[in-house]
């Protein structure tokens, strides 16, 4: 059985194709990808900056909390010990502060922690998947206890407690 003959069609040429104006040229696509890439890099930079800033806030807040805890320990000490520490010029009256690890705090040379001495403590703020500590915060503190009776010529009785602290971290 013979096949029917095809209908008459005109040949397909470039001139009779429908023209579409919705396509992008290669240059337009390259410019779009470049703009998109710069936008993504900017957003990622901002995300990393915000993350670093929030970690710094955590470190600073931890240091402030430690300083407040040591100040509260000093405030709860008996008045006789605080006055003796304020009047002590030889650095032999121990303030008997307890570190966050539960040990008695010593000065940086390992001796008695007295009025005006610096003490250093390292706190680990996080741990890795194996349980090893990481993200150390080095915390230094120096209490200064002043006897108000001596400094005011007897006009006031009590002690003034000032706690200086520094913190350093590497994140």
Plain-language structure description:
The protein is of the alpha+beta class and 171 residues long. The chain contains 3 helices and 3 strands, in the order H-H-E-E-H-E. It has helices spanning 26-75, 79-87, 148-151; strands at 119-127, 133-147, 159-169. Strands 1-2-3 form a 3-stranded antiparallel β-sheet. The longest helix is centred in the N-terminal third of the chain and has 50 residues, at 26-75. It is rod-shaped. The protein starts with 25 loop residues before the first helix and ends with a strand. The mean pLDDT is 88.
Structural class: alpha+beta
Strand arrangement, major sheet: 1-2-3
Q: How many strands, which pairing sense, and closed or not: the largest β-sheet?
A: 3 strands, antiparallel
Stretches with pLDDT under 50, minimum 5 residues: none
- Radius of gyration based on Cα positions: 36 Å
- Could you say which overall geometry the principal axes of the C-alpha atoms support? rod-shaped
Overall residue-averaged pLDDT value? 88
Distance between the termini: 85 Å
Helix content: 25-40%
What is this structure's SSE topology?
Elements: H1 26-75, H2 79-87, E1 119-127, E2 133-147, H3 148-151, E3 159-169
Antiparallel strand pairs: 1-2, 2-3
Q: What key attributes describe this structure?
A:
single chain; three-stranded antiparallel β-sheet; 3 helices; rod-shaped
Compose a concise summary of this entry.
The chain is built from three helices and three strands.
